[in-house]
Amino acid sequence: MSLLTQEHELVRKTAREFAEKYVEPIARKMDRENYYPRETIREAGKLGILTPTVPAEYGGGGGDLRSAVVVLEELGRISGGFSLLVEAYGILFADAVNNFASKRHKEDVLPKVAAGEKIGAFALSEPCCGSDAAAIQTRAEKKGGEWVINGHKMWITNGLYADYYLLAARTGPREARHKAITVFLLPRSECVEAAPIEVMGVRGTGTAELKFNDCRASDDDVVGEVNGGWKIIMHTLDVGRVAISGVALGIARGAFEEALSWAKNRELFGKKLMEMQNAQFELAEMLAAIETARALAYYAAYLYDTGSPDFLLMSHVAKLQTARLAVDVTRRAVQMEGGFGYSKESKAEMFYRDAKILEIGEGTNEVMKYVLFKLLEKRFG
User: Fold this and answer.
1) Which of 15, 54, 76, 381 has the most beta carbons within 10 angstroms of its beta carbon?
2) What was the pLDDT predicted at 1?
3) Which of 43, 117, 362, 366 is catalytic?
4) Which domain holds residue 279?
């Protein structure tokens, strides 16, 4: 059974050509200068790459989750930062808006976001609460017929430059946890303070600390239902965990391809590095890891696209394993390149730093294992 169709391979071709033409020239600039690639985002919008699952009527790619994984894989092969930027933009924000927002919101927001003219960010994590999202403290209180939002968000990809925030806020007592959380679609205004956060890898993604100071929202800005935000958050993160598996696959491929080229050309003790058995074994390990990651990412996306009840389980398996595999492959690539691999001239060095966030963002490895155990308990008792 092939998990990808001819249509998916056409999407791959488009994404690969785009990545090599537009992302390659700015990949190192993003990493070295924390440069946010505004013009490249607009170029991605022209091809539907920026929002691969948003319907074509709103300017998106009109594809399924497998299409998104393929796009993110090809972008990640060139730049982990750009791939993660698109994943947070196109899946955590745009796909969630498409799935849960009102028709008015979709018609107003999605065409601008899909074109790359306006930036969207998913604002969930807080200083108090990354893994424990049900404990968020940002609060929305009803006053005089409108919502007044105050709070503090952290680690928000695209947050520094966002024009819209898909914002999770508490609309009930803290002890109610996930039962008292509401999602708002909030346009940026003067009530939002944004400060850049310097991160180790996936740089140039506009990662920000955000403060919301008496931001006003109407009932029309509620996405879904009041106190019904948890369902939106969980669905969005489950889909995001498969999408970020595509990022992981791409990062691993990029590091492997450079290590392979290095092994072919590096001379050591009178012969090519690739002629040495240890190098051969390391390359074999990397290839096996990449093919494992590919199978997991494509299969998990296939389960979502076909409405399989196994999707929830496999979204967590894919996220856990592809993250670990990407870290391992990039580590091996750096090691194979030796001193060069440890220098800033090496792409493997950049990919190694990029890979680490995959074990932390959108659910740490520990959270993935916790959820998997809960699912295991349900299935096997």
Assistant:
1) 76
2) 65
3) 362
4) 230-380
Range 331-361 burial, b when 16+ CB lie within 10 A, else e: bbbbebbeeebeeeebbbbbbbbbbbbbbeb
Is the pLDDT confidence value at 5 over 80? yes
Instruction: Let me know whether 59 and 141 are in one domain.
Output: no
Closest CA to 240 of 56, 79, 96, 48: 96
93 and 13 in a common domain: yes
Q: Are residues 354 and 239 part of one domain?
A: yes
In the residue annotation, 362 being an active-site residue is answered as yes
User: How does pLDDT run across 76-94, given as a tens digit for each residue?
Assistant: 999 999 999 999 999 999 9
Rounded to an integer, the average pLDDT of 15-28 is 98
| pLDDT the model gives residue 11 | 98
**Same domain flag for 289 and 352:** yes
Concatenating the DSSP letter of every residue in 194-222 gives EEE---SSS-SS--EEEEEEEEEE-GGGE
| C-alpha closest to that of 97 among 116, 117, 111, 83 | 111
